[in-house]
Amino acid sequence: MAQTILIVDDEKDIADLLAAFLKNEGFTILTAYNGEDALRLVTDEAVDLAVLDIMLPDIDGFSLLQKIRIRHFFPVLMLTAKGEATDKITGLSLGADDYITKPFNPLEVVARVKTQLRRYQTYNQPPSLTEYDVQGLQVSKQKHKVYLYGEEIKLTPLEFDILWYLCERAGTVVSSEELFEGVWQEKYLDNNNTVMAHIARLREKLHEPPRKPKFVKTVWGVGYTIEK
């Protein structure tokens, strides 16, 4: 699903210019030309990031930022024609995440938007999985060990990485291409036989019946999965 960017600027030409560049990057754009409309959109829509001008006709951007921050914590980039350090300090102290001075390069704004979204997602993602334990198969990322019904199974580093990649995505089907690029960190280029060979060795070490594997299962024509 495309992320939603709210642009708040009373200068329509600037708002439209930013909207065009951000749309070109695949973002969904909401536009407001005053503070009242901006607050309504923030309330009614799922906004992922806002680009907020300080000079608005009905309310200054600092006050608008304060109102937004009462309930919302998505990244906010401040836009201003002023370059004074005091304005930047004020905006950042009120909860702005970045500051851009007009005139600006739209490509720089796009880059800053992407950076702030990445940071926000990193800080707000759920804790990563460190242990997998289902039906007698135990996998520990921290200890880099695998146990099957209490007995340690010796895997090569690559075999462990394949198994852990599937454990992290337990319950979903992972294609050969995704598995190869995620584990080998190389372009796929039709390396299905490589993936199949390593999956076969992994299953052998897990004492899986070739025709009816219990743990690492094949979804024909799609990829591989492990139970959640």
From TrEMBL:
This is Uncharacterized protein. Keywords: Activator, Antibiotic resistance, Cell wall biogenesis/degradation, DNA-binding, Phosphoprotein, Repressor, Transcription, Transcription regulation, Two-component regulatory system. GO terms for molecular function: phosphorelay response regulator activity; transcription cis-regulatory region binding. Residues 129-228 form the OmpR/PhoB-type domain. Residues 4-117 form the Response regulatory domain. GO terms for biological process: cell wall organization; regulation of DNA-templated transcription; response to antibiotic. It comes from the Bacteria. Coiled coil: none annotated. Residues 129-228 bind DNA. SUPFAM superfamilies: C-terminal effector domain of the bipartite response regulators (SSF46894), CheY-like (SSF52172). The modification 4-aspartylphosphate is found at residue 53.
